[in-house]
Amino acid sequence: MTDSALLAALLFAVAWVLQQRHRVEARRCLAAVALVYALFSIYVVPYAASRVLVGTLRPFTLPSGSARPGAIVVLGSGAATVRDSGGGMPTFIDIPSAVRVAEAAHVYQLMPAAWVISSGGPISDVANAATTAAAMRDALVQLGVPPSRILLESQSLTTHDEAVLIAPMLKALNVDRPVLVTSDFHMRRALGTFRAVGVDPIPAIALDAEVDQPWYTWIMPTSSSVRMSADVVHEFGGLAVYLARGWWR
Question: Domains in the chain and their CATH numbers?
């Protein structure tokens, strides 16, 4: 991950300076890595970069006319399984998944006859591991989506996997244009990936969870901003890879 890579680079630069403390190049390398890490930890930097990916995308509005999308596809970001002292192992979705679930539940309230496809594969390589799809389903039910309207796609590990696996599910439901729910800066890659497998979704962006924080926190270093920077860098890299492999249209 980018945040781990940056930290490793910073430690390497520190070690280099300690070994070559009289070399100007070592000190410059340390200063450059420290500056990049500092910038990546300030929320306004990754947020501004993410706006390039968001472009003209706007919050979801119900299509006009009598036709209504027959399915809502919500893409998972991740989840974690924890162990309590009694031996239980509950699973919780991460914050990006939670924001996507909240948006999917909102869209469902506008389209109560739609199917909801919760997508996200196993959390670990352990047999019978919990899945992000199942964890998001539980969260969707808590927000009022009937369990009978939720379908699971529990095998995917990438956005490409999700598109490939969900396309036949939509065909079986006789749905041509589903509503696609994912994070705003992930939407551009997700839309192109689904179009590459013959599905043309309607975007419903999930806004960043920290966008409404007080202004002064936008310029304060935080670990969550480093993680967001890693996600944004991942998206730019992902677009390049998907383009090169013909997975994005």
Answer: 2-52+213-245 (no CATH), 59-206 (3.40.50.620)
